[in-house]
Amino acid sequence: MHLKCWCKGPTGNARGGFQTGGANFAEMPGKGFQRGGAPSFEISTVDGAFSEREIEALAAFVRVRAGSAGPGGCADARFTASPFANGKVLLPRLAASLFDRIAAASALMHSRTYVDRAGLRWELVGPSRHVFYAAMRAGEHFGIHTDTGSEFDAAAGTRSKFTALVYLGEPGVDFDGGATQFYTDDLEPTARIEPRRGRVLLFDIDRFHRACPVERGVKAWIGLELIYKLFSRGAGGASKTSPADPEQNLDQNRTANH
User: Fold this and answer.
1) 3-state SS string for 131-173
2) pLDDT tens for residues 167-189?
3) What is the 8-class DSSP label of residue 67?
4) What are phi and psi of 83, to 5 degrees?
5) What's the whole-number mean pLDDT along residues 208-227?
6) From CA 152, how far away is CA 1, in angstroms rounded?
7) Per mean pLDDT, which range of 82-91, 184-193, 245-254 is the poorest?
8) β-strand 208-211 against 142-147: which pairing, if any?
9) How many CB atoms lie within 10 A of CB 251?
10) Do residues 151 and 225 touch, judged by C-beta distance below 8 A?
11) What number of CA atoms fall less than 13 Å from residue 23's CA on the CB side?
């Protein structure tokens, strides 16, 4: 998850909850956002994909990794030089398990195809091999940027196309502030996502966004990238590539929770 950062831009609104702005976004609960009257999955949320036991296990993982030695409190490689604790770890089994959980509840991933703003058709291939995490403390934030993605294969026509984040704390309990604000290409504020515990946020990596300042406590998340295969505009046929089958689950009793 490499990043393109912008030093200037609007600070967004502060109405709370899901916000709308110049791009005419409206929430479609459990699915995506509606833009100009047409459904769009370029930004979507999923609640209830993980059990409380799984969320706590993931939160403990981030606490340990983010609290280890090294710049910004992490011993792992970092996905950004920004001062908050963050890391990028090659853990394909964990990434596949996260992918499996989210895929079972996400309308975007269930459809397996996605048409971007340019009209290009993409088909879901599977999860990234890396897992990403962050722990942001009071006063920390992340300016306007896009995620350029960690995986790219020109020969296969595949690349990181979506970021999927799992929020691990509850606002008002574990932290205050820290919403994720999205922007148009002209940097006008659009959707504003409240980082509720267990909520999954999925978004096209080419969408501008920022992490608003944390006001109190620690906001933590863990995530991965979704790999897609590009098809030309209007191209027919479907890829036979399917997501990697997870080698280990987050919760050994996962079938009892769903």
Assistant:
1) EEEEEEECCCCEEEEEECCCCEECCCCEEEEEEEEEECCCECC
2) 999 999 999 999 999 999 999 99
3) T
4) -70, -15
5) 95
6) 11
7) 245-254
8) antiparallel
9) 16
10) yes
11) 25
Least confident span in 34-43, 52-61, 160-169: 34-43
135, 169 in Cβ contact below 8 A?
A: no
Nearest to residue 18, comparing CAs of 9, 28, 10, 8?
28
Instruction: Classify 40-239 by CATH class.
Output: mainly beta
Nearest to 211 by CA among 84, 60, 90, 120: 84
Q: Phi then psi for 222, rounded to 5 degrees?
A: -130, 150
94-112 burial code (b ≥16 CB/10 A, e <16): bbbbbbbbbbebbebbeeb
Whose structure tokens read 């909850």? 17
156: amino acid identity, one letter: A
- Over residues 189-216, the pLDDT tens digits come to 999 999 999 999 999 999 999 999 999 9
In the chain, what are the domain boundaries?
40-239
